[in-house]
Specification:
Elements lengths: L1 H27 L1 H9 L4 E2 L2 E5 L3 E10 L4 E11 L8 E16 L24 E4 L2 E10 L2 E17 L2 E11 L2 E10 L4 E10 L6 E10 L5 E11 L2 E12 L2 E10 L7 E8 L8 E10 L13 E9 L4 E8 L5 E9 L3 E10 L2 E11 L5 E4 L3 E2 L3 H9 L5
Helix pairs in contact: 1-2
Length: 397
């Protein structure tokens, strides 16, 4: 009995020794790192230096699957393997230099449209992943033969998945079309999203967009909250704020307020977008803007507060609807029907304007292949004295 106990202890000690020796070889030697990477299917590299414990640097990385492929001139990171003992994957100092991501060409089949808050599997709430800081120099994403995304450089302080919570801390990126700064916090179980960000366009005008949102669950299948957008172009600042409500197939914008330097008061509005089950279906858009008071209109023009109403139904290839604009009784209004496609639209309208009757007329706008606007204005009953009086008044632009 004593000999059996001693033999069992000896076997246990030898087993532990083999395990710890294997872990030491895997984490602290370059051969161990090479063996670990060799277990990743379809992964190859020209040169692998470093260890899993102290950090890896991979040159000429190439990974592929059935439909995607990723290459990088250099890829390096430092892993904290001890954190794996309590269920955390912690990667720091991640660097990607000259990366290329090839994705399959977008499918022509309709895509499902569902804005419901995503559900996460139960097991994901028991793990934690931390990556950062991260540096990327030159990254291109291809979709088929089309260059869909080009990143010149980017940094990220930290991105983490912490037992069902997502934290993105200061993503800074320099794209071919502009600069982006972005941070966000998401609590999946509470259906909560808080985000702020800035976008600066690469243009002489330095057009910029700043946004902030704080959303939460509203009911079993809806979420939303306040959202604010600040648009700056040539030192002219405009803002849009609203309460948004998102359902699986509907977006509501309530209590909308629009402020612009060309408006003397705050414009209010409401928008509703009904989405189809998939991208091949028909959508419905209904919206209105009220209390539109434009500055620098001559006092002799009885415009008053303007209001707009828009209703559209269809898809991107063909849609129909109606548009109406109304002012004070002395100014009048127009209303008519819209029919359009992905390349342009036609507006058939009529109404009353400045005491005259607008006879049925057409306005055609094409934006593909080139921008082109054609239209006609047919009036009946406009008094010449009133017409010349309105047109002779000075307008300050």
């Amino acid at each position: 009995m004593m000999r059996f106990r001693n033999l069992a202890i000896l076997i246990f000690i030898c087993t532990l020794g083999i395990i710890f020796s294997g872990l030491f070889w895997l984490l602290n030697t370059n051969n161990g790192a090479r063996w670990a990477l060799a277990q990743v299917p379809h992964l190859s590299a020209k040169k692998i230096s470093g260890t899993l414990m102290d950090g890896l640097k991979i040159s000429e990385l190439n990974w592929s699957s059935r439909s995607s492929r990723f290459t990088a001139q250099n890829l390096q990171w430092v892993l904290h393997p001890s954190h794996l003992l309590w269920g955390e994957l912690d990667v720091v100092d991640l660097k990607i230099i000259n990366g290329q991501l090839y994705l399959p060409k977008s499918s022509s089949k309709p895509n499902n449209l569902n804005l419901a808050w995503p559900a996460v599997p139960l097991w994901s709430r028991f793990i934690s992943i931390h990556v950062g800081p991260t540096t990327i120099e030159k990254l291109q994403v291809w979709q088929g033969q089309k260059n869909a995304f080009r990143l010149r450089s980017g940094t990220l302080k930290n991105i983490s998945w912490n037992h069902g919570n997502i934290h993105i801390n200061e993503l800074l990126s320099d794209l071919s079309t502009g600069q982006l700064k972005f941070s966000a916090q998401v609590q999946m179980e509470k259906r909560s999203l808080t985000t702020t960000g800035d976008w600066i366009e690469s243009s002489p005008a330095h057009t910029s967009l700043r946004w902030s949102a704080a959303w939460h669950g509203l009911s079993d299948n809806t979420f939303g909250g306040p959202i604010k957008l600040l648009f700056n172009q040539k030192n002219s600042l405009s803002s849009i704020s609203s309460l948004i409500r998102i359902a699986p197939h509907q977006i509501l914008l309530n209590s909308m307020e629009l402020k612009n330097p060309s408006l003397s008061t705050t414009t209010t509005g409401f928008w509703k977008i009904d989405l189809p089950e998939n991208s091949a279906g028909d959508f419905t858009i209904y919206g209105k803007l009220n209390n539109i008071v434009v500055k620098d209109i001559p006092k002799s023009v009885p415009a008053g507060p303007l209001s707009f109403k828009l209703h559209l139904h269809g898809n991107f290839n063909h849609y129909i609807g109606a548009f109406a604009m109304n002012g004070s009784p002395g100014f009048g209004g127009i209303q008519g029907n819209i029919e359009g496609s992905s390349t342009g639209l036609q507006y058939d309208y009529t109404g009353n304007m400045l005491g005259a009757k607008l006879l049925p007329a057409k306005l055609k706008i094409d934006w593909q292949p080139l921008m082109n606007v054609q239209g006609e204005l047919r009036l009946r009953g406009l008094q010449n004295q009133r017409f010349f009086f309105y047109c002779s008044r000075p307008v300050v632009l």
